């Protein structure tokens, strides 16, 4: 992927950071977006630039800000000159049991998981089309099968599933648009009941959780080896969705 440029949202930590490292190792230059993890983003940028000078940059933005999509895309163009890949990875995730849902939760979960990917795609469309580029949306198996107590999150990811297919039609033939639906890869950072973790693994065909590297490998597959695939959502879930 030498000479290609990737913009990855939520890339300072966890799965996003692994995606950034993997794309960079494949030769791409990377724009690392973060919201609040400044130290992690700075450290990752320094790590990648030490491997290849001038190959990584960081940018802070709240994706719910109206100007964030255009600002992220323009910053990538200003820094690297073009854009080949947009990875919509940033996401909010927390329970919203029915009866306790607030408008603020609606705005946050729908905003980060659905609104931001749409407006980022819109802002990046022309630049990606000029490079025959790719959009990858990080979805979730629970965009296909709802997770109990997470109706808003599940609905937002279901919307992102349809948005992926709709954008694939809208942006063809110049831009491919696909989705990745992880299963149990990293547990949430907030407290999660150990019994629930065991239940999830028990219901996963491979009887184990995956790793961020599994998701990063799938990003590389779509970016490098899948020129005839668009409008698809690939579950990377160890058989959890079975």
Strand order of the biggest β-sheet: 3-2-1-4-5-6-7
Which CATH-level-2 architecture?
A: 3-Layer(aba) Sandwich
Radius of gyration: 17 Å
Specify the overall morphology.
globular
**CATH superfamily name?**
NAD(P)-binding Rossmann-like Domain
How many strands, which pairing sense, and closed or not: the largest β-sheet? 7 strands, parallel
Q: According to CATH, what is the topology?
A: Rossmann fold
Mean pLDDT: 94
CATH class: Alpha Beta
Q: Strand tally, please?
A: 7
Strand content: 5-15%
What's the domain count? 1
Order of helices and strands: EHEHEHEHEHEHHE
Structure description:
It is built from 7 helices and 7 strands, in the order βαβαβαβαβαβααβ. It has helices at about 15-25, 40-50, 70-80, 105-130, 150-170, 195-200, 210-225; strands at about 5-10, 30-35, 55-60, 85-90, 135-140, 175-180, 235. Strands 3-2-1-4-5-6-7 form a 7-stranded parallel beta sheet, sandwiched between helices. Helix 5 links the parallel strand 5 and strand 6 (about 175-180). Helix 1 (about 15-25) crosses helix 7 (about 210-225) and helix 4 (about 105-130) packs parallel to helix 5. The longest helix is centred in the middle third of the chain and has 28 residues, at about 105-130. The protein starts with a strand and ends in a 6-residue tail after the last strand.
């Amino acid at each position: 992927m030498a000479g290609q440029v990737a913009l990855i949202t939520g890339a300072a930590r966890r799965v996003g950071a692994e995606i950034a490292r993997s794309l960079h190792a494949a030769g791409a230059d990377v724009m690392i977006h973060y919201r609040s993890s400044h130290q992690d983003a700075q450290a990752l940028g320094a790590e990648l630039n030490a491997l290849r000078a001038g190959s990584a940059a960081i940018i802070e933005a709240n994706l719910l800000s109206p100007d964030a999509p255009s600002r992220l895309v323009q910053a990538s163009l200003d820094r690297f000159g073009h854009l080949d890949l947009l990875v919509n990875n940033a996401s909010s995730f927390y329970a919203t049991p029915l009866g306790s849902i607030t408008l603020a939760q609606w705005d946050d979960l729908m905003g980060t998981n659905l609104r931001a990917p749409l407006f980022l795609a819109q802002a990046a469309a022309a630049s990606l089309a000029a490079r025959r580029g790719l959009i990858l949306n990080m979805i979730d198996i629970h965009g296909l099968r709802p997770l109990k107590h997470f109706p808003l999150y599940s609905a937002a990811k279901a919307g992102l599933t349809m948005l992926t297919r709709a954008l694939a039609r809208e942006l063809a033939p110049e831009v491919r648009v696909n989705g990745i639906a992880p299963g149990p890869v990293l547990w949430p950072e907030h407290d999660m009941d150990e019994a629930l973790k065991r239940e999830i693994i028990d219901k996963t065909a491979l009887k184990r959780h995956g790793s961020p590297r599994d998701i990063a490998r799938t990003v590389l597959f779509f970016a490098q080896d899948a020129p005839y695939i668009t409008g698809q959502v690939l579950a990377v879930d160890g058989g959890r969705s079975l």
